[in-house]
Amino acid sequence: MAKDSHKRDANMKDASGTDKVTEGKGPVATEGMTSSERAKRRNKIILLTLLALLLAAIIGGLYYYLTQKELAIPRVTVPEAKTIAPPKFLFLFDGSPKATMKKPTDVAVHPKTKWVYVTDTSMHRVSVFDLNGKFFFSFDKVDSGDMLAPIYVAFNKKGEVYVTDRGNEGLYIYTQRGKLIKKFVPNNDPNFKWLPIALTFDEDDNLYVTDILQTHQVLVFDPNGNLKLKFGDVKGVAKSVEEPGKFAFPNGIVVQGNKIYVSDSNNRRIQVFNKKGKFLYLIKTGGLPRGIDIGYKNRLHLVDTMAHSCSVFTRG
Fold first, then answer.
1. Which of 167, 200, 287, 308 is the most exposed place for a label (fewest CB within 10 A)?
2. Residues 6+ away with beta carbon under 8 Å from 119
3. What's the pTM?
4. How far out from the chain centre does Cα 307 lie?
5. Phi-psi label, residue 262: left if phi above 0, alpha if psi -120 to 50, beta otherwise
6. Which residues touch 142 (CB under 8 Å, ≥6 apart)?
7. pLDDT in tens, 228-282
8. CB neighbours (10 Å) of residue 199?
9. Which residues fall within 8 angstroms of residue 270, CB to CB, at 6 or more apart?
């Protein structure tokens, strides 16, 4: 009787399935599970895997933001509708032996003579060449003596040559052949304090200059040298979208139509304004944007001194 009772108890245990599932098989055993239980287990594993991937993505994004001070934006490659051949290299010139260049900073072609003017910061002069690189002459005098650090060069409608000299904290005007005409004095005020850097002219011969002495700003002068507009302030930002209208070393400027384009170097962006100085929009660049100009197909060309490259943008 006792044996029969023991068998009945064992059979009841077997029928319930409580002791036959995992004993001796470890925690991953699924023998004896119903299809519903297996599905729940599979879904749990999938959910844990997705949560682990999401956590890894969050940690990666946080690390990028803390190190780069920018949100990670995926690159999207759009295929070109039409492929064109790259420009063909023709020649180079370094001014040797008569005008060897050590640190050329800016280059501009005179609209009338087609002479090429190159500012050389290390050699403290502006050298002039023809379009084939043949040296013509150089000039290096300012009102107080010698050039110290000529940076940018531009031409007004008369063909006069404007050169900013960072070392002398001034802007100087020359003839096409490099003879000093005068120092540019804003508002004809000898006490006017500024440190001009980049410069350009618009179609009405108004002069646009970036100033980095105390506040970083853009100054606009009429053809007689009178200040007619100024805008901007100094501010370094952590993210390029912050503080529009403020600059950290604006090192390039160009005007076309009703728009003013300023390369805001240390803030890693181009800022765009209308002719009244009202902020319109910005273009994120990264790197260290410097020289800027409108070129082929009316596109915006930007030199990046950190990436050692030239980026091309549509003007928008």
1. 308
2. 104, 105, 106, 107, 126, 150, 151, 152, 153, 163
3. 0.73
4. 10
5. beta
6. 165, 168, 170, 172, 180, 183
7. 999 999 999 999 999 999 999 999 999 999 999 999 999 999 999 999 999 999 9
8. 23
9. 261, 262, 263, 264, 282, 283, 285, 289, 292, 300, 302, 313
